[in-house]
């Protein structure tokens, strides 16, 4: 089990618990409707102090409601660890087990002479049929294939005979940096080239993608940009900050400053390894500010917003938010968020656009922190609770069972008690 010696970039990218039975407090079912709101099914436990409510909503809610078998089980956050959102976030980052998958690296040169690294599971070329579905994984800010949540998802998908590849962005996961441009929340061109490359290698396979945190933001932006022409058959977004202006506001509050400083150190470390690429670059770049960044905002001011042509950091955050892209998504998209996420605030979730899009479904858990989700049978050291849910969605798409179900409302909204259906 890998245990970092300090709070690091895993914070943003990166025993079974018995189910209590209360026969005298069985769930009660209430159907609410009004002239101003669409009908919604509210399932709650009459023993309210034991209730942990999950939210299931979106234009595609009715299509996938029966697919998520894992939602029939209680959502049981692990005791003590999940009492506090920061504790859950940090525990998952420091103590979640690392499966230790053997990977083979492929370096891909991009059109602008940049470099990204694709990590494939060793032996899959001979072990899997050529037409096996391919799953592209996008870690969070400064994250890579060595992160625990990435490897657990990789193992889960691989056990279902999926071919999996981790997309390590420029400078991340020890991927080389060969130009004076890193990557950003707005930059989708590298992902576009990766998807096209994977598609050319496996032309008979269906392609899917999962993104976490900043990787999720990039993925959803890509889906919106590609719209009807998207080469992916389905996608999953986890812990997406969605609205980067709101996320930035909260990033500078209270304990969140710890995450901010940790990520800034990780970004500065990557930058310093490649500082010679920026020697004498001039213009609006502030090399000293980036090299000594005390916050992610410092780094974005010194390097990111200049590299990608934004007038200011606020301009960069506003125009890089994936919340603007949801309305243009034309493939099945599962979004999973935690209501208490300290880094991807729930108030930034574009609820209305998700409800209005017939391709989108949103699951919001009451707890989970950021990339934590220390719940379920594998808690506290095993895979996140979300992995089962994600595979149910992807397997359903791959097996071709998606159907357009008739619904009494254009945009449904369901609340599911932790005691299940």
Fold and architecture overview:
Strand 10 (333-338), helix 12 (351-356) and strand 11 (360-365) form a beta-alpha-beta unit. Helix content is 30%, strand content 17%. The protein is an alpha/beta fold and 421 residues long. The chain has 13 helices and twelve strands. It folds into two domains: 85-242 and 324-404, 3-Layer(aba) Sandwich (Rossmann fold), CATH 3.40.50; 244-320, no CATH class. Strands 1-2-12-3-11-10-9-8-6-7-5-4 form a twelve-stranded mixed sheet, sandwiched between helices.
Shape category: globular
Global structural class: alpha/beta
> How many domains make up the 3D coordinates?
2
Low-confidence stretches: 1-51, 401-411
Reading the helices and strands in chain order gives: EEEHHEEHEHEHEHEHHHHHEHEHE
Provide the CATH architecture of the largest domain: 3-Layer(aba) Sandwich
CATH topology of the largest domain: Rossmann fold
CATH class of the largest domain: Alpha Beta
The proportion of residues in beta strands is: 15-25%
Order of neighbouring strands in the sheet with most strands: 1-2-12-3-11-10-9-8-6-7-5-4
| Helical residues, percent | 25-40%
Overall mean pLDDT score?
87
CATH superfamily of the largest domain: Alpha/Beta hydrolase fold, catalytic domain
CA distance, first residue to last residue = 35 Å
* Largest beta-sheet details: 12 strands, mixed
The number of helical runs is: 13
């Amino acid at each position: 089990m890998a245990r970092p010696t300090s709070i690091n970039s895993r914070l943003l990218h990166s025993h079974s618990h018995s189910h209590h039975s209360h026969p005298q407090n069985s769930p009660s079912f209430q159907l609410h409707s009004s002239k101003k709101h669409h009908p919604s099914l509210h399932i709650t436990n009459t023993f309210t102090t034991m209730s942990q409510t999950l939210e299931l909503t979106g234009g595609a809610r009715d299509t996938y409601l029966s697919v998520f078998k894992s939602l029939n089980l209680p959502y049981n956050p692990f005791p003590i660890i999940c009492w506090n959102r920061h504790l859950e976030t940090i525990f998952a980052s420091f103590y979640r087990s690392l499966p230790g998958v053997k990977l083979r690296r492929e370096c891909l040169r991009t059109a602008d002479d940049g470099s990204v690294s694709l990590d494939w599971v060793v032996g899959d070329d001979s072990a899997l049929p050529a037409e096996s579905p391919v799953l592209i994984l996008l870690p969070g800010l400064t994250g890579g294939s060595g992160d625990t949540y990435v490897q657990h998802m990789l193992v889960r998908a691989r056990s279902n005979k999926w071919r999996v590849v981790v997309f390590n962005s420029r400078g991340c996961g020890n991927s080389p940096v060969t130009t004076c441009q890193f990557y950003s929340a707005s930059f989708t061109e590298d992902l576009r080239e990766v998807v096209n490359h994977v598609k050319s290698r496996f032309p008979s396979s269906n392609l899917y993608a999962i993104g976490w945190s900043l990787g999720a933001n990039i993925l959803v932006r890509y889906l919106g940009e590609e719209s009807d022409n998207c080469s992916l058959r389905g996608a999953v977004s986890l812990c997406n900050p969605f609205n980067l202006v709101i996320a930035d506001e909260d990033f500078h509050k209270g304990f969140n400053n710890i995450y901010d400083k940790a990520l800034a150190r990780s970004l500065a470390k990557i930058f310093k390894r490649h500082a010679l690429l920026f020697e004498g670059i001039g213009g609006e770049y502030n090399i000293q500010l980036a090299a000594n960044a005390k916050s992610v905002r410092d780094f974005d001011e010194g390097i990111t917003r200049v590299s990608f042509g934004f007038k200011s950091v606020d301009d960069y955050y506003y125009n890089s938010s994936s919340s603007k892209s949801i309305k243009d998504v034309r493939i099945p998209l599962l979004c999973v968020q935690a209501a208490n996420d300290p880094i991807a605030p729930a108030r930034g979730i574009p609820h209305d656009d998700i409800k209005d899009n017939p391709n989108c479904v949103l699951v919001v858990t009451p707890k989970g922190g950021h990339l934590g989700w220390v719940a379920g049978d594998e808690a506290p050291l095993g895979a996140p609770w979300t992995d089962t849910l994600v595979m149910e969605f992807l397997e359903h798409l791959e097996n071709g069972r998606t159907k357009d179900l008739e619904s009494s409302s254009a945009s449904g909204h369901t609340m599911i008690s932790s005691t299940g259906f």
